[in-house]
Amino acid sequence: MEDASLPPPPAPALCWDCGRALEPADRFCRFCGQGQGEHVTWYYRRWGILVATGLGLGPFGLVLVRRTPVMAPPEKWAWAAGIAAVTVWLGYRLYQAVLMVKAVLGMASGQF
Ligand SMILES: [Zn+2]
Questions:
Q1: Residue 35 resides in a domain
Q2: Does residue 72 belong to any structural domain of this protein?
Q3: What percent of the chain has pLDDT over 90?
Q4: What is the pTM of this model?
Q5: How far does the centroid of ligand 1 lie from the alpha carbon of residue 21, in Å?
């Protein structure tokens, strides 16, 4: 969390996405259109990655974690490990559910 009493950091000199030069007043890249600093697109922010990954992207949310400019590499690795762990856990639960359905169907049709 950033301290709200601190002034915002100076604008980066280069676009985080395409790497081209920015004017100090630019809030969006003039070449690729990506938001800079606090104008980063919602799905590259932490809450956006959480929402997009939780509501549909699943393991594909790793793409957002890899590309986001708001995290340093150690934080990206932590997020990637968390997404991978949840994906494995959900996959295991799905596997258990399939086994249970097969068992119930097997009992109903007299197999066993
Ligand atoms: Zn750019």
A1: no
A2: yes
A3: 74
A4: 0.71
A5: 8
52-67 residue pLDDT tens:
999 989 899 999 999 9
Distance 25 CA to ligand 1 centre (A): 14
What CA–CA distance (Å, rounded) separates 38 from 40? 6
| Residue 45 located in a structural domain | yes
| CA 3 to ligand 1 centroid distance, Å | 28
For residue 5, the model assigns a pLDDT of 77
Residue 24 Cα, ligand 1 centroid: separation in angstroms? 14
Distance 32 CA to ligand 1 centre (A): 4
Which residues, including other chains, have CB under 8 Å from residue 23's CB and lie 6 or more apart? 30
Assigned domain for 85 exists: yes
* HSE toward the beta carbon, residue 62, CA cutoff 13 A: 12
Range of the domain at 56: 40-108
Length of the chain: 112
Q: In this structure, which residues have their CB less than 5 angstroms from ion ligand 1?
A: 15, 17-18, 29, 31-32
